[in-house]
Amino acid sequence: MRYLLLFLTTLSLQAHTISNYKAINSCVQFGQKEYFAIRSFQFDSRNSLLVVDANTLKTGVVPAKDAVANNCSQEILDSRYRKLLKYILSKRHHLQNDGIVSNANGVTITTDLCPSSKSGFEERLYLALIKNFPNPVPVTLFITKRWIEKHISAFEKLRKWDREGMLNIAWGNHTALHIYHPKVPLNKNFVLSPEEHLEKDVLDLEIELLKRGALPSVFFRFPGLISDKNVIERVTRLGLITIGTNTWLAKGSKVQKNSIILVHGNKNEPKGVDIFLEELHKGAISTPVSILQLIPMR
């Protein structure tokens, strides 16, 4: 996607204007390829679309004027992207840890960046990835707008490692606000809180990433891993693939060959990072694969 490359390289550290940001669901022809278009918006007054390659799961930004809307082909309706969305809807839904929790293709590393009052971030975690695995190291960052706003320098360092080919970051959606109330029951907490406006919370995070030159992926993780059937369906309608975990290290899970590892990169849960580094030192963590290679264990 040549436009995407131009879009990213012309961004500066200065925030750009994203307006009229809307969720859509259509198929478009751009160049010689068919894509799902999942968002329409204006980037510095340019009409643009956020599109998904239905086979690779990669996202891109393309000019709306060059994307021709058409009826979805049978090939794209039967694509890997659509199958993953259908798989999530077909599962029995649980209050905790719904979505895809394992990857048959190998170990996948995900780090959550929930809101945090702590300064800095778990730099040691990302430096260990860069040092111990072939670069760029694939890692998914499930990030929140509130974390970005309070940790601009950390966010920019992560972006720098990504730009310079040390990390290969998939920017996952962890909502903008990550609402949480201590001592409130889980079925009324996080995105199940009465004050939650889920669609806005999801889209606001994407807007924040685009304003700062980062490309939203199609991957989503519920705050606290808490959800129900209703919110799963709503996130799926937004074109996002819900990711859980089978290896939350701080909770005592063990690394497996199909692990989707969860550690926190925001200093809120240093125990998980300690365990990760211990396992890495012992050679228990194999070379990670990208979340783009996701195949759920059946």
Percentage beta strand: 15-25%
Principal-axes geometry comes out as: globular
What low-confidence regions span 5 or more consecutive residues with pLDDT below 50? Answer: 1-12
When the domains are counted, the total is 2
Described by its quaternary structure, the protein is single chain
Largest sheet: 7 strands, parallel
The end-to-end span amounts to 33 Å
Give average pLDDT, whole number.
95
What's the Cα radius of gyration? 18 Å
Strand order of the largest sheet: 10-9-8-7-6-12-11
The counted number of beta strands is: 12
Task: Please report the first level of CATH classification, the CATH class of the largest domain.
Answer: Alpha Beta
> Percentage of helical residues?
25-40%
Q: So how many helices?
A: 9
Q: Which structural class do you get from the secondary structure elements?
A: alpha/beta
So, CATH architecture of the largest domain?
Answer: Alpha-Beta Barrel
CATH superfamily of the largest domain: Glycoside hydrolase/deacetylase
The helix/strand series, from N terminus to C terminus, equals: HEEEEEHHEHEHHEHEHEEEH
Say what the CATH topology of the largest domain is. TIM Barrel
